[in-house]
Amino acid sequence: MSISPEAVAEEIEDRVDVDDTGGGGEVGRARVRKEDQRLITGRTRWTDNIVLPGMLHIVTVRSPFAHARITAIDTTEAKASPGVMDVITGADVKDEQGALPCAWPITADQKSQPHPAIAVDRVAFAGEVVAVVVARTVAQARDAAELVDVDYDELPAVLDLRTAAAGGDLAHPDLGTNVSATWVFDSKEAGTGDDVDAAIETARAEGIVLEREYRQQRLIPSFMEPRSVVVDPTGEQMTMWSSTQVPHILRLMLALTLDVSESKVRVIAPDVGGGFGGKLQVTPEEIITFLAARRTGRPVKWTETRSESLLSAHHGRDQWQKLTLAATKDGTVTGLKVDLLADMGAYLGLVTPGVPILGAFMYNAIYKFPAYRFTCENIFTNKTWTDAYRGAGRPEATFAIERLMTELAVELGVDPLEIREKNWIKHEEFPFASVCGLEYDSGNYEAATARAKELFDYDGLRAEQKRRRESGDTVQLGLGISTFTEMCGLAPSRVLGSLSYGAGGWENASVRMLPTGKVEVVTGSSAHGQGHETAWSQIVADELGIPFEDIEILHGDTQVSARGMDTYGSRSLVVGGQAVIMASRKVVEKAKPIAAHLLEAAVEDLEFSAGSFTVRGTGKGISLGEVSLATFAGHNLPDGIEPNLDSDATFDPSNFSFPHGTHLCAVEVDTETGQVRMRDYVAVDDIGNVVNPLIVEGQVHGGLLQGIAQALWEEAVHDESGTLVTGSFVDYTLPTAADTISFTTDRTVSPATSNDLGAKGVGEAGCIASTPAVVNAVIDAVRHFGVDDIVMPCTPERVWSAIQSARAGGTSETTPEAQPHFVEGEPNQDPGTGAEGGTR
Amino acid sequence: MMTRISVTVDGSTYSDEVEPRMLLVHYLREVVGKVGTVIGCDTSNCGACTVHLDGVSVKSCNLLAVQADGHEVSTIEGLARDGVLHPMQEAFRACHALQCGYCTPGMIMQSLDVVRENPTPSEEEIRKGLEGNLCRCTGYHNIVRAVEQGAAAMAGSRTADVMAGE
Fold it and tell me: What was the ipTM of the complex prediction?
């Protein structure tokens, strides 16, 4: 006889060491996830699994050139190929395809090039769609795509961000400039702080001024499920399944872009295999599949290959940061000036222009310096469009300030933790009005840092580092610190309005009471791995006193969930969770008069707890389930009461939330090979109250590795012709299990005040914090050679070259003299191919 | 030109005419309907399509369907028996070793291969054994935990089998 499966499950659960944080309720319990059953058995509803009768398949033909005029397209041979039903070019659909939407014009005079789903007469990046083949099978479509004959006249391609900013060749000649927009925040002008120029001038005379340039390399979100779209035309109604983070936004944008009635479009995001911002988009392929289904009158599917995904799904990061930090000689920061260049790529996506702006409010981080100016130029190049990638703007800001604080500590010869403590907001100073005008509602940087130090053995590792230095060990130890904060819970609609964003930041939820006492909860925040079905069930179980198992969470279908703002920006729990609470409480309020009537008591004598209404001071009571059944029957309701307990709520937050944490990282650097090995990583995060610690830890782990990957391994590289060299997972090197280590995570708690849960959001925290922690650690390991920066990713070649160059007395290119900022005539390639090596 | 193949998938035998160029993963998904096995890349890097061929893990994008002729294929869909999850599936759920779940079928199939080769793998051996399978959500932390726990549970159930005289 075998051991029983239940015993195996119990044994495993016993061994899994995650502490519940709650006080006996569902919220705070480390519940295993509801959604896992289908995911671990292969019964998942991926878009690419959908097969409909008569369904046709699309394969795209993409431009191999970064910038070219299309002079002719011959589709004759392709059209005659077996199984081909249609071949569509830009010319065929130019009057109906519209232009892809950008929802965030950051300035009134922002320049924008219309982005057609299928290029009509010019392509602006390698990978842009120039034609699509629609055939009975994918194989037939792929065969025929090879036969589409496109003639191009190449145009000069603008590839390097700094060169593009300086002028010269144009990514879009019609615009007359490569600058899409310039956006400025100045604390003096805004009335939120002092004049940064004055602060810098004073520091030059009697304090310290640090000037640094940092490169945020281009990254590719690399969700594991390739994008897929199916469109089913049924009469006038078009149903689209898409592997998207944003079914509601997509539906609205399809209607606006294609001039069809919103009520005739239904969008379904079934199970979605990761997003990380990469599926926060309205894509050419969604438009194309819609048009192909409408033209052929048949269901049509498009599923990308990985190579296609890396080439054409939007990229992230890609900025140059020039930073000027002013401080007094005792290490008190007095001001920060940020001049940023942000690479838009060829087109503005849904929120592309706003990504740097999300970072603008975070450069001051946890510190209370009084003067700040942020200037950003958004620049077009002939590369894949960029847009949100996990953290969107905030990782870049956090990297810059956390690298600078470490550099300031080095300059002053003090410990990097000490310099942070000197400048951070003390816990008793909350709520705190930041130099950017945000109100930080809660936080305790001292507590998180103390806990991180405890878990990390900071002093012991410093002693080991000293020993290795002194003995000249070929393997050097480096310690890196990142004390980050972020703004989450996107977002108060008024704030979005003031930043010219095209929509609000609320979230919607509804609760449906079924006659049997079971509950359906509809959320507008559609998950793609975050575990909403579990966490939302826990929240509702506590609110309504209904068993966790009796609650079903519905999402991701615009016909089921009529209103929603979808999932991104660590917003789901903080905004969507609050909407779920509000809708649940409305159910109780609606049920109360009915319960009172059934109990023959006065409404004011009833109290509700643990799923039942009871009459105070008596033993009389009735469960919510019983009230639900009585309401369904409607036989005995008070006069004038509608027989329906279902409720709906929309929550618009009044403030952002501000998760923070202290991350400490130890790396070993082999000074003979440049190889960096992760040794230890401690993350103590304060994300407020926690609904499900199991899910929270998972979010932190995954975020950490994505941030570490930016520091050490990942970079999207284009060659001199604009071809994406890292066009497959052979070259775009996602970390594997063997590249990394187990993390130590813990939490401190200062609850958010902007929602009843006290939650702050956790989706992006790990990814924001870890990149500077790792780079600070790598530099710390080799600083004694004279290295004060290494451009990300810190590959063995770059680390080795930095050591060699420093040993040879090479100048550090991060000094303004060696690397003048934004000056014409700079080399046309970003550093990073490694060939030139050297310190930066 | 089509070729007739006969393949046993999760215990049932299928006989089909396929194009010689058809990959095993496409055969499983499109012909047999085993969509639990998914495709994550086109360069054999990601391992999302990992299945077992005669008990040994293979990336099903790396084999032609015709190469599976006469062989036995097991997929994620055949792991649970009579509605009871395999200990490794249970371990993945208990350890929260999946988020979006896209890599999970391949990851579980590869984990079983790691344990087949070494019933008590160390953390390092697990990490090396899973090197051919990419996950973007979990940072691998909980996947490593799950394989440890799954391996222990499998060893436990084997011990129980022996003690019961099976």
Answer: 0.96
